Sequence to fold (222 residues):
Amino acid sequence: MNRFKNRLARVALIVLAPLIVAGCGVNTIPTKEEAAKAQWAEVQNQYQRRSDLIPNLVNTVKGYAAQEKSTLVEVTEARASATQVKVDASTITNPAAFQQYAQAQDKLSGVLGRLMMIQERYPDLKSNQNFMALQSQLEGTENRIAIARRDYNQSVQDFNTTLRTFPQVFFAKTMYASSKPMVLFSATTQAQSAPTVSFDTAPPPAPGASPGATPPAAPATK
Fold:
């Protein structure tokens, strides 16, 4: 009888042990870690999507505004710099590598913004169907990038908090000691600065005056 009871107890322990461990949240850390990695992959995917659009965009602008060479070169070089930064799953736990990647992508965002402003000086470019299609795709991709970064930050914040709170901190120090806190995206310079809007327009030059000439001083009143 005692032997039967001991055997029954062992069977019950085998059946219940996984449930007890699962109830303690032993799988919480790897689950949230994988969720954060999936969001990181989505960030990379959207940045790659943007990178793929740039060559066609530059070529289209070049056809209408070749004199904007400096801006076109800046965009091409910024794209090259961004694509040369090597990233993988380990990047999100390496603050220096993560910062290098984020800065390269933010720089590309800045020069792309200047490129898109060129259209205001070239009506033919602004109305070009190919440019309009690329512009729409780029705007949509920039929105997807913003959403992907936001979702990534939320997943990482959740994961990092889990590593530091009880009872998960116990598993973080033992079973999942290799799981490290991940790096968050910080707000870009553009996001931190309020946009500047100016409605100032230069008055037309006086008849016969050369462009850029200083207008004559008004006569002194007596």
